[in-house]
């Protein structure tokens, strides 16, 4: 049941309090009843809380209720306004209607009539919400149908056998960006023998394709589809404003690795000047796909784990380890102690030591700002002064304090972000939820959010969303007579085949098999 917010605006406290206490708000599904004594106070409440329904008087000091209503409806167009007034004046009623006021009630207010009026507005809100959900589902269905037709056209464009490049005709419906070059990437998963994805490869490919559509297609950076072999193909637009294909894929590869615990083998074709050469870039990418692999761990071109770097490189190696352990507080602290100790025993001058400490602190602070989205402040300048005015031993202590404080500030934010994200997910299972939309919702970098969610929850964000959706689907299949496609829609899947694959991976049964077992237990 949805819980609604109501705002009561009247300059007479006896009326405000009377309305507040007279109506059985909880029985109507109202969770919050707010009050304001004037238009200025009411406008502030509307801006901060976005109520669903407002009951207001007309005659109030400073600004009357109708003028206030006009401003409010500009800010919150969906607000349902009910005017309560002691003036039986047609002009007031006429102006109220022209502003979009939902009802006009004369004082003294009859309790039964007012409850009926409020209930009617709540029914309207529920109807609008349901209509919006249905429209969203229909829009998504049309998009999926268009996507399927579009993929057929893209396969035709990249795989069509022709003798001459100029003979390629662009299939109807494909609209590429103008004035840019193109580059094709082909991706296929490397699935180990004991991986669960061996039995669910189709689901994996649909999920990975969805990730690329969110990352590439939704940003108008190119087109994503599956070729006739089921591999992922991405046609990138190449221009001065865009990142190249390898940079874009590398970013998403890290998220795919975290979310699905799988590596992608990648082939990237050459940049071609026009659409007639896309087939050449595609063919080249397919050939490379068998040998080229983008390793998401960019820091390890050689194995540094147990090797013994030279003295000259040891601080650099430790610094890299500290930064790469940004999300693992205990590991980062261990490497930090080793770094500080290495500076102390190296015999360098104090000024060089200050530079080494500042170099590490500034790099860690930059990582902190980049991943959390927090604004920069003056703490680095404070650290410089501290390092310059203290001896080496205290410089070691203050550098460690500086970095550790950042670690735990970040850790606290990590917990708060993920806690809020899980609440957000559980309240919106019918909506289009992805790592990307959630990262934007909580104003953090996508890769950071993906790693953070898995660290805090012990499972990837996509896995968590899927698990919660399947739990709800199991309940609906057990207690309702909804058809499979209707259950899919109720839990956020607009492609029934995708839903069935996800359901079987999580339960070992198809939705139909699950329902049969629930209805006919052995």
Structure description:
With 522 residues, the protein is α/β, with parallel strands linked by helices. The chain folds into three domains: 125 residues, 3-Layer(aba) Sandwich (Rossmann fold), CATH 3.40.50.2300; 114 residues, Reverse transcriptase/Diguanylate cyclase domain (Alpha-Beta Plaits, 2-Layer Sandwich), CATH 3.30.70; 160 residues, no CATH class. It contains 19 helices and nine strands.
- Tell me, rounded to a whole number, the average pLDDT: 80
The tally of strands reads: 9
The N- to C-terminal Cα distance equals: 35 Å
Secondary structure class reads alpha/beta
The 3D shape can be described as globular
Structurally, the number of domains stands at 3
Radius of gyration from the alpha-carbon trace, in angstroms: 30 Å
Order of H and E elements? EHEHEHEHEHEHEEHEHHHHHHHHHHHH
Q: If helices are DSSP runs of H or I spanning 4 or more residues, what is the number of helices?
A: 19
Estimate the strand proportion: 5-15%
Please give the share of residues in helix. Answer: 55-70%
Strands in their spatial order, largest beta sheet: 2-1-3-4-5
Summarize the main sheet. Answer: 5 strands, parallel
Low-confidence stretches: 162-168, 291-312
Give a topology summary.
Elements: E1 4-9, H1 13-22, E2 30-36, H2 39-49, E3 53-56, H3 65-75, E4 80-85, H4 90-99, E5 103-106, H5 111-159, E6 181-190, H6 201-215, E7 222-226, E8 232-238, H7 245-260, E9 263-268, H8 278-289, H9 311-324, H10 329-345, H11 350-372, H12 379-388, H13 392-427, H14 435-441, H15 446-457, H16 461-479, H17 484-490, H18 496-507, H19 511-519
Parallel strand pairs: 1-2, 1-3, 3-4, 4-5
Antiparallel strand pairs: 6-8, 6-9, 7-8
Helix pairs in contact: 2-3, 3-4, 6-7, 7-15, 9-10, 10-13, 11-12, 11-13, 12-13, 14-15
């Amino acid at each position: 049941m949805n819980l609604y917010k109501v705002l009561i605006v009247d300059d007479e406290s006896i009326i405000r309090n009377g309305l507040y206490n007279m109506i059985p708000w909880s029985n109507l599904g109202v969770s919050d009843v707010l009050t304001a004594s004037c238009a200025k106070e009411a406008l502030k409440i509307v801006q901060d809380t976005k109520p669903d329904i407002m009951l207001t008087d007309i005659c109030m000091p400073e600004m009357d209720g109708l003028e206030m209503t006009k401003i409010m409806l500009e800010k919150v167009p969906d607000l349902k306004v009910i005017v309560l007034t002691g003036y039986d004046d047609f002009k007031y009623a006429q102006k109220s209607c022209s502003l979009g006021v939902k009802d006009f009630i004369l004082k003294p207010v009859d309790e039964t009539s007012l409850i009926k009026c409020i209930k009617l507005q709540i029914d309207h809100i529920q109807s609008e919400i349901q209509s919006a959900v249905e429209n969203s589902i229909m829009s998504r269905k049309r998009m999926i149908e268009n996507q399927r037709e579009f993929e057929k056209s893209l396969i035709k464009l990249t795989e069509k056998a022709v003798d001459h490049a100029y003979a390629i005709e662009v299939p109807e419906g494909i609209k590429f960006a103008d004035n840019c070059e193109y580059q094709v990437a082909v991706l296929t998963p490397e699935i180990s023998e004991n991986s669960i994805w061996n039995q669910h490869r189709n689901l994996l490919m649909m999920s990975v394709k969805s990730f690329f559509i969110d990352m590439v297609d939704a940003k108008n950076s190119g087109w994503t589809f599956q070729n006739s072999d089921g591999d992922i193909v991405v046609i990138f637009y190449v221009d001065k404003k865009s990142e190249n294909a390898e940079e874009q894929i590398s970013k998403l590869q890290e998220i795919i690795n975290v979310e699905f615990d799988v590596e992608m083998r990648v082939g990237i074709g050459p940049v071609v000047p026009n659409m007639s050469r896309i087939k050449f870039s595609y063919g080249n990418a397919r050939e490379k796909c068998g040998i080229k692999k983008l390793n998401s761990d960019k820091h390890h071109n050689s194995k540094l784990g147990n090797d013994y770097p030279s003295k000259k490189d040891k601080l650099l190696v430790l610094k890299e380890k500290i930064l790469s352990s940004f999300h693992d507080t205990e590991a980062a602290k261990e490497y930090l102690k080793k770094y500080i100790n290495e500076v102390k025993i190296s015999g360098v001058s104090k000024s060089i030591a200050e530079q080494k400490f500042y170099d590490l602190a500034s790099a860690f602070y930059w990582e902190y700002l980049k991943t959390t989205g927090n604004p920069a402040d003056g703490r680095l300048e404070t650290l410089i002064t501290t390092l310059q005015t203290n001896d080496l031993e205290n410089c070691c202590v203050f550098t460690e304090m500086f970095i550790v404080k950042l670690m735990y500030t970040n850790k606290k934010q990590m917990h708060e972000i993920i806690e809020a994200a899980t609440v957000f997910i559980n309240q919106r299972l019918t909506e289009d939820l992805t790592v990307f939309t959630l990262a934007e919702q909580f104003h953090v970098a996508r890769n950071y959010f993906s790693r953070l969610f898995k660290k805090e929850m012990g499972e990837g964000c996509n896995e968590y969303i899927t698990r919660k959706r399947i739990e709800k689907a199991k309940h609906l299949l057990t207690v309702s007579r909804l058809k499979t496609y209707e259950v899919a829609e109720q839990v956020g899947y607009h492609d029934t085949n995708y839903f069935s694959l996800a359901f079987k991976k999580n339960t070992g049964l198809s939705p139909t098999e699950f329902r049969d077992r629930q209805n006919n237990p052995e």
